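Intended use. Records like the one below are meant for learning the mapping from a protein sequence to its folded structure. Do not use them to infer anything beyond what is encoded.
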Amino acid sequence: MFALILAALLATGAPPSPTVTVTDGSGIPVAEARVVFVDAAGALDVERTDPAGVATARAGFVPLRAEISATGFQPLKVTMTSPSAHVVLEQKQKVVGVVRVATGSPHDLHELPVAASYLDRTRVMSSPATTTDELLRQLPGFDRTRSNAEFTNYGQLRASFSGAGNDRGLVLVDGVPAQDGFGGQIDWAAYPSQAVERAELLLGAGSALYGAGAVGGVLDLSTYGPRTDASIPADGLISYAAGGHGTNVADLRFRAPLGNNATMSLYTNRWRATYSDFPEDFRSPIDYAADSRSNATQVRLRFGGNGSSAEVGVLNADDSQAEGRPNYNQARALTQFDGRFTRTKQQSLFSLTGYARTSFVVNVADKFPTAPGVMRYTQHVPTAEGGVSASWLVQSGTDDFEARLDGRSVSGTSNQYFPSGKLQTIGSGSQWVGGFAMQETLRRSKFEALFGARGDSVSFFGGLTNTAGSAPGTRLIKRPPARDDAAISPRIALRYDLSPTTAIRISDGAGFRPPYLNELIRGFQIGQTAFAPNSDLIPERSSTKSAGIDVIPGQVRASLNVFSTKVNDAIAFVTKSPNLQMRANVARTQTDGATLVFSAPLGKCMAAHLSGTTQYARVIAGPSAIVGKRLQFVPDRAAVMDVDGAVGHVGLGASLAFVGEAFADDRNTQPLNPALLAGFRVAAPLSRNTQLSLSGQNITDRSYLTSVDRVGPPVTYTLAWQTRFGSAGGAAPTSGCGSVQ
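Structure written out for the chain above:
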């Protein structure tokens, strides 16, 4: 990593080659745009922008002008009056959103051979959500619509996409795996919604490109980062929000140049709220309001020059939950170092991403319901993990070829202690997973075909469980044998244009997920129910078949996707007794469903987005007691309607979400009730650089379960002040105005 930084710094000493930085209207870099540099003699130098949106002319080439084009944008010609130029591309009239996660390269949603969804910066800024998992409720295909990360047991913060089920989805943040390598949960508090700029979701199996975990889809979040153009002066914003139930949110974002070819960014976020979060069945006479707090800070440095760029970053986050009773609380801390390197040539893009992360979780449980507030145990779960991924994308005419290689290693331990501090149980182990993928995309007139396959291998080793024996003073020590597994995951997708406004698609892809170390060696308890691990678990394998139609008459878009996902050897909790659930491989699950998405403008400066999903996710083979039962935490229905835009200088956003019924257990005896949740956000300028906004969450004050032992947040109104400084100053920002995104 330090070698990359050194190389980038050395590059800054050479005379800079002319560059063009390409962004969209929201300031988001446009990767893989085609930039044709033209010199005085008419000679051409054809380059592609890197992920930071930068294209660099070859050494010694002196262009007079540049011609820029990119999928989904209007072409643009600029005169090179200085060695660097910053251009903003306007989206084509028919564009409904460009995403990268679906195929590995950026393409219009309408032009994809597979289904995908996304939230752009306009919708993110307009959302009333104050947390990231609440924000993602607006994303079609995101199953954990009742997620309440700041007031939920960490072990229940799982991902499920397109009805596939818990842990059957891969989550990336700025290209780095976000799920904890030991437990699989997502620390949403480490990625505050105020820092999120974009969300993209591949719907359906993506293991053919992304490998382990991508059973039901792949979510990729982009967060606040350094500018790609070092000629832009420093800018930033400060905001503070306060509201009901002790809500306090403080946010600082800052970006600045560090010389001719270097830039930096900083964001720091502080969040707090409090309310009584126990449902009636989990209350006791000694309860008090739960209190949740989180902090996240990230610094990123970017160096670029001569067609290459390098970036390094550090993220530090911590949060805590006092659940509302003595000796019932959780806390965790996370530190992550990451780096990225990209190299762009005429028709190719090479990228390398690496990270190292440590985390520490503390879980204190009481003896509810027999002795509320009396300590049952304390758990310490330290984890160390790291990984690297490399991809090579080659574009030839209208065709793409991509190769991807990645690996990830994890080591973790779960130590559980008696109230006296004496060791009760230990579970520890290590895991390595990695693979290699190749994918080819061919485009011919109205037809497009995507073919890809990937091989993965996974190794579990160093396993140890140490528990108290039945006789006083004895220990029961087990060393699960090391095990290796492997999988081949293919994907094929076809697309055909029936007309300039109508496209149909069909796809078939495979998924693969090995068990997390948490599932193999760690147990925990909620109330009177114990949840046990199983070191004999084997990986899940799946297939997703889908078909869809996408129509874009003018600025309106309608898309229907029908899907069916089957998972073999599905990992789930299976009830062994009234007070014991144990992880096990269930022979087969199946999810059949459909998602409809509709977007349309509401006048000049407003847009509406509607989506609805119906899905039947159930066990179709396995223990007789659960065959036909619904998968845990997967809703049968979900629907969202949101509006964003502006009236004059006033930004407006509103969201209405239906959260369908789900179940918290395998036998469907613990229902989680449906709910209709509404929210809004109104932002008005106070001055040239300052705005005031009012937002409301759950304004109908609907009481609903987010898990079997938590209720969702009550109605909350929040007033926020925000001021911008530096080059970000000027007219106070609104939610946006223009065509549907």
